[in-house]
């Protein structure tokens, strides 16, 4: 049984001051309009996004589910980056749903994300270190740069390329181009990471309409198939090798196995580059670049601008997914891979899409 | 694909588990479920994890607790309020029903003892502009239900108290239950008022602990044990956001709609006749009465009589919450999974407070401000419909 994406809807990505269910509603409505179906034709709703401290309120699906149109319908929320909700949507469709909406929501402006993430550290060993997310990412960057002698300029060039891509994407949060000097002269957030080398938080929602194959063919003649999904977890404790991301490899292997494909067939990538170094490390973990050489990868990666241009905490992975799906629909590429991650670089989800 | 429960484990539940860390409590439940199924952790292919984070003093605890779940496994986190335990079970069920996995564990944990007061946390769930200032929490909402039901159907405080008497008697036979007290109607009526008309012994506690359920595909389930609990049907429903939009507090119409769908899928025409036992998410006495009526076990206005008449006692015609239910044990984000696991034990014939001859069981959870319901029917393999 194949599962396909038949509708995509985005809200604007930025800092939203209006009631957030309106933002979620915008994305859901646009996805339904894009699919040309009514809310009543959706039998299941899978939500993806954070809870409590991550969005400033608990049981966040209470306000997001009605906005998606889940009134009196089946609804479950995956509490993570929303790409992790894709496997559950896929499984729901394979077992008993005809049409499922995946609604991704990210509302990080409600909350100081760095402080919030600090609370995910165990109270005995890690929390007393006050190691914020940027500080941890900086440790990874330091390890990566030291291990492979990667020059700062090479990473700045990655940022420039991604910001160029973002400038071409009307959906992106950051659309201004930057130069290498801008990156290298931007302030240190946590050494050696500079401000422009890191993703900036924003808000936004994405909705996707997915359907089982026979139903999908009735809804659309331009379907993007979800061929494979994979998700994985890394050791929680920091006794890991900081210069690489083996859990990303693992999630990709699972997705490729399910898709019965290998890297050769993949024409485009959308990856969750929360830092310029992550951009390189993910490419290497996915097997598209040699270790320590991710910065020189010149393939089709993050044409959306990636997380470095749009990082709505909670919906970033779905933003990347939807951008890749749109490109496949337009015929720009026929097969692509999307990857996202969450936590202190601990969890990864990967999906393989095909036109 | 048919899916069955092949293992259930839980920790003892207490006000505060000071003896173990978050992942250690999870590990305790996992080991208990594995032991029940006769499996090892390496046998499990994927894990679905549920928790309501804000009570536990740690954000996204699945990250830490993954150390207890087997690091090589895909892990997915579910959180949907009070229904979390049941939606975690349903998500784990999807893992197997989809054909992607053969052996999957659902594990839920709550360490609400870390939280000074759960009600202000729950208050953050409601809309900050229209409803939050009212101080709404779970107790207040249940009090609305009790007041509305008593006014409409003439239920008395004594009617409600009998539900508490029944659950507390059942909990005495459950080695894992949190509150173990032999209480009579007068004890309930004389306990202090928490939110009128609900009194202390009519309100659930807050419990620390964890539960785990192992799901298997059909062939594997038959190999693992000779009495698996088959998942016959499951459903969830999501109502509108605002509490003020509920049509009535004297009836639970969203549960009635969900129940109708569930029974249709399960092939159940007469739930009162076809279902032998129910583990209901009755966090407050009034809620069991509303649930009995919404699910068709009692006619409208009759649910109030069931406990008093003994119908819902262990030897009655429609036994409810033989485990002692939520009124005696409430690890909020794990409570639904305890309902599910206890329902599975009943149809396996292995419950601590076993209903004689139980072949079909229903489990239920509600969440949000009366917004969500999750339901499942489990069977020992009895043909339904």
TrEMBL record, chain A:
Keywords: Isoprene biosynthesis
A Gene Ontology biological process term: isoprenoid biosynthetic process
Protein source organism: Archaeoglobus fulgidus
Cited SUPFAM superfamilies: Thiolase-like
Residue stretches making up the Thiolase C-terminal domain: 248-354
Annotated GO MF terms: acyltransferase activity, transferring groups other than amino-acyl groups
Positions in coiled-coil regions: none
Top-level taxonomic group: Archaea
CDD domains assigned: SCP-x_thiolase
Protein's recorded name: Thiolase family protein
Keyword RNA-binding found: no
UniProtKB/TrEMBL annotation, chain B:
Presence of the UniProt keyword Iron in the record: no
Domain annotation Thiolase C-terminal: ranges: 245-379
Name of one Pfam family that matches: Thiolase_N
BP-aspect Gene Ontology terms: isoprenoid biosynthetic process
The Thiolase N-terminal domain, residue ranges: 3-219
Keyword set, alphabetical order: Isoprene biosynthesis
Superkingdom in the source lineage: Archaea
The name this protein goes by in its record: Thiolase family protein
